[in-house]
Amino acid sequence: MASLTSKISISEINSLSDKQFESIFGGVIELCKDAAVQVKKKCPFQSLEALCDAFQTYLQDLSLEDKVVILKLHPDLAGRLADLGQLTQESTEEQKAAGLDKLTSEQKRILEERKNRYNEKFDFPFIICARENKIQSIMEGLQVRYENSYKEEVAIGINEVKKICRLRILDIVKE
Ligand SMILES: NC(=O)N[C@H]1NC(=O)NC1=O
């Protein structure tokens, strides 16, 4: 999954410059370089878990409005960007892992319908950690989570972003 050929250790991370840190961790939250800028200020990290915690705290401490901004930075599942081959490398591989590149036309139609309905209700995309799911659970999630309140869905969406972020960090850092 990682674009790096080999993983780096926590002590190597602790000796990175701001620029290096931002370039390595700038994508662990989709298109949100600010997370890496803010988390770098917490350096040094005692462990991989401490590094993951710092990103999770960054997400948790955001206002409701800023959490929504983060959700909106995420691409649609099997959406237009995927069709155009314009997802980030991370998202491309995650969506593939869930089998979203192999939808039948019927599955694509149902997914499209449920995503649109979700988007119309919440005005942000449905976010789920694709690597921890398959087509079936994504379809079911869309159905079940549609019933939630706005606040509940922001919280659940951010929780999924935390899972995505943690897995992306594990692709970069030696355990
Ligand atoms: N919309 C959405 O959930 N997008 C994503 N999920 C994930 O694991 N990678 C993504 O790009």
UniProtKB/TrEMBL annotation:
The keyword Lyase applies. Its EC number is 4.1.1.97. It catalyses: 5-hydroxy-2-oxo-4-ureido-2,5-dihydro-1H-imidazole-5-carboxylate + H(+) = (S)-allantoin + CO2. One of its GO terms (molecular function) is 2-oxo-4-hydroxy-4-carboxy-5-ureidoimidazoline decarboxylase activity. One of its GO terms (biological process) is urate catabolic process. Catalyzes the stereoselective decarboxylation of 2-oxo-4-hydroxy-4-carboxy-5-ureidoimidazoline (OHCU) to (S)-allantoin. Belongs to the OHCU decarboxylase family. This is 2-oxo-4-hydroxy-4-carboxy-5-ureidoimidazoline decarboxylase. It comes from Trichoplusia ni. The lineage of its organism: Eukaryota, Metazoa, Ecdysozoa, Arthropoda, Hexapoda.
